Amino acid sequence: MNNTINFNNVKMINEIKEIILNSRQKISYEVNNEMLIAYWNVGRIIVENEQNGNIKAEYGKQVIKELSKELRKILGSGFSVSNLFNMRKFYITFPKFQTLSRKLSWSHYCELLSIENTDERNFYEKECINSNWSVRELKRQLETSLYERLLLSEGKNNKEKVYKLSKEGQILNAPEDVLKEPYVFEFLDIKEPKPILEKDLERKLVKHME
After folding, report:
1. Closest CA to 204 of 190, 186, 193, 194
2. Is the per-residue pLDDT at 57 higher than 90?
3. How many domains, in total, are found in the chain?
4. Which stretch, 58-72, 86-100, 179-193, has highest mean pLDDT?
5. Spacing of C-alpha 95 from chain mean position
6. How far apart are CA 72 and CA 80, in angstroms?
7. Range of the domain at 189
8. Comparing 67 with 163, which gets the higher pLDDT?
9. Residues 27 and 205 sit within 8 Å (Cβ to Cβ)
10. pTM check: above 0.85
11. What is the largest CA-CA distance in the chain?
C-alpha cells in the first residue's frame, strides 16, 4: 500500500512540476517579449518626434530629460534618462523589430547597445542566441575581449582554441530568471526592495500581459 502511495506521489509531483515549469517559461517569454515591444516603440516615438534626428543634439537631450521627469511621475522608475537613451538607441540600432531575438532579454540588448562596432555587436548577439549566454556570461565575454582575441588569433586552430576557452565558465539562466531582473521590476512598476505577495505579482503580470 505504501509503495503505491509513494509511486502515485512521485507521478503527481512530476506532472505538477512539468506544468509549473512550462508555465513559468511561457510567462517569462511573454513578459520579455512585451518589454522589447514596448521599449522599441518608446524609442520609435522619441526618434520620430526628433524628426528622425534632424533636431539639435542638445535640444534632444533636454527633451529626453523632461520626458524622463514626467514619465517617472506617471509610470515609475523604469524611465530614467539613461534608460530612455537606451530605448532610443535600441530603435535606431534595430529599426526592424522583426530582426530582434525573443531569446534575448532587455538586459542583453542594453549590453549589446554599448558596442559601437556593428560587426562586433552582431558577433556577440549571435553568440548570445546560439550559445544561450546569460547576461552575466555576455558581460564576461565582453570583458575578456573575445571578439578581438579571435580576430588576432592566427590560423583556424588558434581561433578554435580561443573560442573553446571562451566557453569555460559559461553560466546559463533558467527562463524564469528573466522575471528576477531589475528591468522587469521597473517594467511592472514593482519597487524591487519592497516585499511583494505572490498574488500581487501574479496580478501585475496578468495586467501587463492583457
Report:
1. 190
2. no
3. 1
4. 86-100
5. 17
6. 7
7. 2-209
8. 67
9. yes
10. no
11. 79
Supply φ then ψ for residue 66, to 5 degrees.
Answer: -65, -40
> Judging by beta carbons within 10 Å of its beta carbon (0-12, 13-18, 19+), is residue 18 exposed, middle or buried?
exposed
Distance CA 28, CA 184 (A): 10
CB atoms inside a 10 Å sphere around CB 126:
11
Cα gap 39→109, rounded to integer Å: 11
**Which set of grid coordinates corresponds to residue 138?**
555576455
Question: C-alpha angle with apex 44: 43 to 47, nearest 5 degrees?
Answer: 85
Average pLDDT over residues 83-99: 93
DSSP states along the chain: -HHHHHHHHHHHHHHHHHHHHHHHHHHHHHHHHHHHHHHHHHHHHHHHHTTTTTS-HHHHHHHHHHHHHHHHHHH-GGG-HHHHHHHHHHHHH--SGGGS-TTS-HHHHHHHHT---HHHHHHHHHHHHHTT--HHHHHHHHHTTHHHHHHH--SHHHHHHHHHHHTTT-----GGGGGGSHHHHHHTT--TTS---HHHHHHHHHHHH-
Cα distance between residue 197 and residue 205, in whole Å = 13
